[in-house]
Design brief:
Oligomer: single chain
Number of strands: 2
CATH architecture of one domain: Ribbon
Radius of gyration: 23 Å
Strand order of the largest sheet: 1-2
Distance between the termini: 39 Å
Helix content: 10-25%
CATH topology of one domain: Pemi-like Protein 1, Chain: D
CATH class of one domain: Mainly Beta
């Protein structure tokens, strides 16, 4: 997927990233962007915020099932396709 756009540098040094590009990249207003000079030019990418490491136990109960509980056989039926051959 290649999408091209042309924009202009304003007198104050601002650039406008077209909405079509922002939508494809899922960039939101107010996002922090990292700017890096490379041998190819300027690389613009989202600032990767360091997230706190979490223990697996903290996610217990995160996904809640609504409705009748499924049996082990029902849960595995969709992936047990080799047994039906």
């Amino acid at each position: 997927m290649e999408t091209n756009a042309i924009t202009q540098l304003s007198e104050s040094g601002d650039i406008n990233i077209p909405l079509t590009i922002r939508d494809i990249l899922h960039w939101q207003n107010g996002m922090e962007l990292d700017l890096k000079i490379t041998s190819f030019g300027l690389l613009i990418q989202p600032n990767q915020v360091k997230r706190k490491k979490r223990r697996l136990e903290e996610f217990r109960g995160f996904l809640k099932h609504q409705g009748t509980p499924l049996s082990d056989e029902q849960l595995c039926a969709s992936v047990n396709y080799l047994e039906s051959e």
